[in-house]
Amino acid sequence: MSRPSFARAAPNTRVYAEEYGASSTSFYTTVEKQSTYTSSDELLKQKCADPKVRKVIEDMLEVCAEITDALRTSLVTVEGTENDFGDSQLSVDVIADELMWDACKASSVIREGASEEDPEVRNTDEGKEGEFTVCWDPLDGSSIVDNNWAVGTIVGVWPKSTGLIGATGRDQVTSLVALYGPRTTVLVALDDGTYEFTYGCTPDGCQLDNGEFYPWICSRNDIQIRKESKIFSPANLRAAQEIPGYKKLVDYYLEERYTLRYSGGLVPDIFQQFTKGMGVFANPTSPKSPAKLRLAFEAAPFGLLVEKSGGKTSDGVTGGSILDVKITSVDQRTPLCIGSADEVDRFNEFVVNKS
Asked: Does residue 10 carry a pLDDT above 70?
C-alpha cells in the first residue's frame, strides 16, 4: 500500500506559536514518570485518619471501577424510562445509578443515599450502623456520552451528625469525582488536600507478588490550583445576553487571549483545573437561563475538592463560598463559579459586583 503524500509548507511559510495551538496555548502536561506509585490502600492510611471515612472512600472507588467496566461494554441507548424530571434515561445512566445504590446498600458505613436521578434521601442501612449520607450524580454528562466524550460520577459524603438537609458543603467529610475517559481517574478530598487516583494502570514498581497490579494508584499528590489562570470554561453562555457583566467577562477572556477549554460536561470541564493546575468554570444564571446545577449533587462536592486545592468558589449570588450555602432541599439548584482564586474574584467583580 502506498503511503499518503502530504504537501510541504512553502519555504517562507511561518507558523506563529502564539497564534496556532503550540505549547504556549495548549498547556501540555509536565508530569514526569515516577519510579513507583503508592497504592490507594497505603495512601488512605497515611492521609485519612478516620477509618470509617477511609471505608466509604474505598467503597466509592470500588463502585467507580464497576462503572468503568460497565461503560466499556454498554451501548448508549434510551432505556424507556424517565427520571423524576421527565427526562428520558439512557441505559448507561440506569446502570451507573443501580451500581451506586447497590454499593451504598452493601456498605457497612453508609446510612442514607440520594441520587440526582431520584432526588430523595432514602435509607440504605439495614443494620442501623451506618455513619454517612451519600449523594451522587451517577453519570454526569448524559448529553455528551453518546459522542463518546468524557463523563463522570460526582459523590458528596455528609456525616450522621448533620445529615443532608440543613447542612452545608463545608460539612462534608469527603467528596469524590470520577472522570471516565481513556483512563479512569478519581479526585478524592483527604485530610490535608486533594489527591488523584487512577484505575487499572500497570506502571513499573506497582506489581504485586502474585503478578497482579494495584487496582488503584495515587497518580497526583496534594494537588494545587494556582491563583492565576489562562484557561476558561464559560457555561450557560445564553445568560450573557441578559447579564452585561457576564458578557463583559467573556469579552475579557477573549481580549486577554485565554484558552477556551469547554466540553459541556461538568466533570471534565472542572476536572482539568486539577490536571492543568489552573482554570475557571463560570455558570451564572438569569431569568431566561435559570440554574441547572444541583448544590448537593454537583456544586458542593466539587467545591470541597477545589477549595482543598487552594482554589476558590462563588455562589454566584452573594459572592461567598458555595460551601457556605445551606442545603434546604435535596434538588436545590445554584449558580456557580469555581477555580483559580483570582479568576473567581474577577467573576464576583464583573458578574456579582462583589470584589
From this structure: no
